[in-house]
Each structure stands twice: as structure tokens, then as C-alpha cells.
Design a protein that fits this description.
This protein is mainly α. It contains 8 helices and 4 strands. Strand 3 and strand 4 form a beta hairpin.
Amino acid sequence: MRRGWKKVVLGGLLALTVYLTAESFLPACSQPTAQASLALIHAYQATGSKMMESGGVHCRYTPTCSHYAEDAIGYYGTVSGIVRATGRIWRCSPWGGTGYDPAVEEHPAAYFAPEQQPQQMSDEEKRLRQEAERQAKEAAKAITAGCISGSAGCAIIIVTGLVYLAVKIFVMIWAFKDATARGDANAVIWPILIFFTSIIGFVVYMAIRPKGDMSPCPSCHKARLSTLTKCPHCSVDSNAPPKTA
């Protein structure tokens, strides 16, 4: 049974790796795990960070490690952001450095140095420059408005995604335990299949799983397929002759 749970854990880790890899192709604002990570960071900033500061523990860098992680995950996404935040925490150790260390470098718009600016600008150049500035401001306003209007939709998507993931994990564990109790040699395959195909994998398993009534094992009292002579949980053969002293 311990080997079976190890296989489930390894299968879950593999499935999580595949999911995070696929999710990394999405923008950071569309990644459910990134939004969940930011929520945890905000909770830490409201509680744990203040407790550490009151105890005299301060970050060696500016911005602090929690704000660094917030910026990194919010800009680069979950995987890349966590890797960068882990490196920052390592650098913040007593054998690390100090100073200004932002997660995202801000690059201002291109500009002319004073010595490079022309003495006079023509009316056409002034008009083009003003038009470019106006378009940049309108684009910034549009992006801000889109983020605000989409926040509610993003919250619904995040909650739905987390509920869907929780249900899928529950079904994966149930399918593995049921297949093990029914003596299916491919019990570890079904959780992986359900992770990638969802309801299709579950329907296939329910259709071809070993059929029969379940009954408790006389030895370990765990449910198993009644037609099995050898318990898949404790490996005790019910048809074996009793041992004599």
C-alpha cells in the first residue's frame, strides 16, 4: 500500500509539473496559481511580515523580499517568479548583500539628452510628438480600464479553476483507491489518465474497471473485491490453509 501511495504522489507531482509548464505559456495575470500565490503573499504581508518587523527582523534589501516576490510573480508568472523570489531570499541571508534590488526594472520612455535636442522643432515635429503622447496616454487609460473591468471576471475564473482542480484531485485519489481495492494492476495509470482527460478518463475507468461487490478483508478489514482471494491491501490469501503451531 505504501508503494501505491508513493506512485500516487509521484503521479501528482508529474501532473503538477505538466500543469505549471502549460500554465507558464499564459500571461501572468491569467495564471490561477499566480493569483493564488499573490493572495498568500498579501496575507503574509498583513500578518507575518508585521510580526517579524516587530521582533526586530528586517529585510536587507529594498524592496523587501515579500514585495520582490509579489512583483516577480505578478510580472513573470508563477514558475519564473518563484525561482526569482527564491534567489532573492537566498541573497537576503546573512552572507548575502544589501541595497536596492527590484524584481522588475522599469525602463522609461526614450528621450533626447539635453545636448542632443535640436535647438528648434518644426511645427510638424511638435504636432507628431504631441500626437504620440496623446496616444500613449489613451493606451494607458484603456489598459487600466480593462484591468479594472476584468478583475471580477478574473476572480470568478480563479475560484472556478481552483474548485475544478480540487474536484479533479479528489476523483484521481478515489479512482486509485477503488482500482487498488479491485485488484487492478494498472491502478496508478488511472489518476494520470484522469488528470489529462478529466471526465473522459473517469468514464473509461468506470466502464472497464473490474466488476463485482465489495466486502471487507477478514485480515485488515479494508474493502476489497469479493472475488479476490488475495487482499490487495495486506496481501493475505484468504484461501491459504491456516498456519499450525
